[in-house]
Amino acid sequence: MPDHIHGILIFDKLSEATSGLSYQNKFGPQRENLAAVLRGFKAGVSSWARSKNLDFKWQAGFHDRVIRNENELEKIRHYIATNPSRWEQEQLKEENSI
């Protein structure tokens, strides 16, 4: 998409029994939360764009959704896969209405 991206991130945290840690932060390691992952991704993409002298900036924030079951996951995967064709259809509608 020319103006946004979609992604599915899976966080599979280890339990205390399998991690070997006797104490875990109530909120978990902060490097493993959604905001930290997105900060790192945005920083990496921004750095790459600057190295290519691209006119690029991020929209503030992000929209997130917890996917609770396989049915939701499949619907979201379908939405993401078909999103580019919907965008192209919208562009054609806009061009034809001018």
Automatic annotation (TrEMBL):
<dbReference type="InterPro" id="IPR036515">
    <property type="entry name" value="Transposase_17_sf"/>
</dbReference>
<protein>
    <recommendedName>
        <fullName>Transposase</fullName>
    </recommendedName>
</protein>
<dbReference type="GO" id="GO:0006313">
    <property type="term" value="P:DNA transposition"/>
</dbReference>
<dbReference type="GO" id="GO:0004803">
    <property type="term" value="F:transposase activity"/>
</dbReference>
<dbReference type="GO" id="GO:0003677">
    <property type="term" value="F:DNA binding"/>
</dbReference>
